[in-house]
Write a structure and sequence with these properties.
Distance between the termini: 36 Å
CATH class of the largest domain: Alpha Beta
Number of domains: 2
Largest sheet: 8 strands, mixed
CATH superfamily of the largest domain: FAD/NAD(P)-binding domain
Order of helices and strands: EHEEHEEEHEEEEHEEEEHHHEEEHHHH
Number of helices: 11
Radius of gyration: 21 Å
CATH architecture of the largest domain: 3-Layer(bba) Sandwich
Helix content: 25-40%
Oligomer: single chain
Length: about 375
């Protein structure tokens, strides 16, 4: 038996495992795949996220291990301004998660199998898998929205379909690389058009990466257009871009990532904790996804779990302390509020007013 079983070793699961193992807390990971598959997720590390990763001893595990972006240009309302992002890094999400997994070798046990059920209690938790049963005092779920594990525990997912986002990513190659004398370029539309938010162009090592963020509905014809003709639509929505980086061409297929807002309810159950995107989804537009993952790992694994393990039992009252943590709740709330603000930016003055009322009403009656 181990102290902790973690189901899932994406960004959040790896952070939790590395923090716990560094404290000498026996930890087992249950993961379906040996390597994390190619996927478009977060591709920038923001300064607050870098602080947490450094605290975990993980900042130098990112891929590529390149310096901070530094000089970044903002283009808004026809005006160009320069600022220093200080500690903002470009990264390959898939390669970074696989780097985390590599660092976990020898620190904790990893079982490559599928978790099928959790049998929980006030004392011991059993994770049933295709490879047998595994027992621990605590189970952390970081498995990418597996309702088959949550529903039998009485945990449900509350979804708000009014909050959606659709993000795109691809590589570009400027005709004259000498004109790209910066590491980042953010282009904001003067007025909302077709639910497009903004585009950010930045370096990941030697690659120049484009992330385009929007509130486009998943069934919109614009999704197919962006995937089929990204260059034409870039020129349509961001016509002044070539003035600053010169001619360029799109060199890869377009990846997309749709998200809809949800938050779990009924989470105060004995012995089981849900972290990261499993607990509350995040819009990539906000840039807060890694903030949520690293904050959850920090508060849970540096603060609560060592305290919980020091006394017998793993009752729901212990688990509740984590979900009510002020730091965690603040980061979750900030992520939600930013998502709402981006959505309602497209609604003009009255859209913003309505969003303020919606936020207050749902917070008051705990409807998020």
């Amino acid at each position: 038996m181990t102290d902790v079983t973690i189901i899932g070793s994406g960004f959040a699961g790896c952070c939790a495992a590395l923090v716990l193992s560094s404290k000498g807390i026996s930890t087992r990971i249950i993961e379906r795949t040996e390597r994390y598959p190619d996927a478009f997720r977060a591709e920038k590390i923001e300064p607050d996220q870098a602080d947490n990763l450094r605290k975990f001893g993980m900042l130098d595990f990112r891929v590529p291990l390149a310096g901070p972006l530094g000089k970044t240009m903002n283009y808004r309302n026809g005006q160009l301004s320069e600022f220093d992002t200080v500690e903002q890094y470009g990264m390959h999400y898939t390669d970074t998660v696989n780097s985390f997994r590599d660092k976990l070798e020898g620190r904790c046990e990893t079982v490559v199998t599928r978790a099928t059920e959790i049998v929980n209690s006030d004392d011991r938790q059993i994770v049933k898998t295709n490879a047998g049963d595994f027992e621990s005092r605590i189970v952390i779920i970081a498995a990418g929205g597996k309702d088959n594990l949550l529903t039998p525990l009485g945990i449900s997912r509350r979804t708000h379909t009014s909050l959606t986002s659709l993000s795109f990513a691809f590589h570009i190659e400027p005709e004259d690389i000498s004109r790209v004398d910066f590491s980042g370029f953010n282009y904001f539309l003067s007025e909302p058009v077709d639910d497009i938010d903004y585009v950010t162009i930045f370096r990941i090592g030697d690659i120049i990466r484009v992330n385009l963020f929007s509130q486009i509905p998943i069934k919109s014809p614009l999704l197919r257009e962006l995937k089929a003709t990204p260059q034409a639509l870039m020129q349509k929505y961001f016509p002044d871009l070539e003035q600053h980086i010169g001619s360029y061409r799109v060199t890869t297929k377009v990846q997309s990532f749709p998200t809809t807002f949800y938050r779990l309810t009924g989470t105060d159950v004995p012995g089981v904790v849900v972290i990261g995107d499993d607990y509350q989804s995040v819009s990539p537009t906000t840039g807060t996804g890694i903030s949520k993952c690293t904050t959850d790992a920090d508060r849970l694994c540096n603060h609560y779990i060592p305290q919980w393990l020091a006394t017998p039992g793993m009752s729901a009252s212990k688990i509740t302390e984590y979900y009510h943590d002020d730091v965690k709740r603040k980061v979750d709330a900030n992520s939600l509020e930013l998502w709402i603000s981006y959505r309602d930016h497209h609604g003009g003055f009255w859209g913003n007013k309505l969003s303020s009322l919606e936020l207050r009403f749902n917070n008051l009656f705990d409807r998020w």
